Amino acid sequence: MPEFAALIQGYRRFRSGAYIQQKERFDRLAEEGQSPKLMVIACSDSRVDPSQVFDVDPGEIFVVRNVAALVPPFETSPGLHGVSAALEFAVQFLEVRQIVVMGHSMCGGCKAALTRELHGADPGEGGFVADWIGLLDEVRAPIACKHGIDGRRAEREMELAAVRVSIANLMTFPCVRTKVAKGTLKLRGAFFTISDGVLHVLDEQSGNFAPVE
Ligand SMILES: [Zn+2]
């Protein structure tokens, strides 16, 4: 497979380049374990890699990526809660100090949440995605009402709303809520626009996103 061969080529570059340059760091991380102070929740989209956007070294950020960078609410229902497990580990064991939710422009997951094009699909045929982005159903309604379900304006509103939903859902986790109240954990929203490579940060007070100077 040429795609995998390209990965192996990349690995060889890493092995003779970045790995050698960071050998001491890797040795230390192997010996002492990881202790990242930041958790990043981002979309699986191939264009928005948090390590690249934030230019961080190995060991610096604990990352969860999924469709549309979503955090589900705290649930104890049966099922396998992958995001909740990662969150629990980051907050309770790694004791990260900040959690950054990073959404992005032209997000396919958010677009599908808006159009509901996968609604009713069987699992494996789009149904898993449809269920997952159903997390945005509540915020979808007013956006669809105001801006319709297509066009960049509606899509952007949906993408920004998704970051706010994830942050609100983070606060439904008792461990997060407690630490935020104590001031030992801070939640932050961010948004990356692919077309110009600009990061926008959510202002807690106003609820608006502003580009980083
Ligand atoms: Zn996305």
Which helices and strands occur, and which strands form pairs?
Layout: H1 2-16, H2 18-21, H3 23-32, E1 38-43, H4 50-53, E2 61-66, H5 82-94, E3 98-104, H6 108-115, H7 127-133, H8 137-147, H9 152-170, H10 174-182, E4 186-193, E5 198-202, E6 209-211
Parallel strand pairs: 1-2, 1-3, 3-4
Antiparallel strand pairs: 4-5, 5-6
Task: Provide a descriptive summary of the structure in words.
This protein has 213 residues and is of the alpha/beta class. It is 47% helix and 16% strand. It has helices spanning 2-16, 18-21, 23-32, 50-53, 82-94, 108-115, 127-133, 137-147, 152-170, 174-182, and strands spanning 38-43, 61-66, 98-104, 186-193, 198-202, 209-211. The protein has a 6-stranded mixed beta sheet with strand order 2-1-3-4-5-6. Helix 6 crosses helix 9 and helix 8 (137-147) packs antiparallel against helix 9. The longest helix is centred in the last third of the chain and has 19 residues, at 152-170. The N and C termini lie far apart (43 Å). The mean pLDDT is 97. Zinc ion binds next to helix 6.
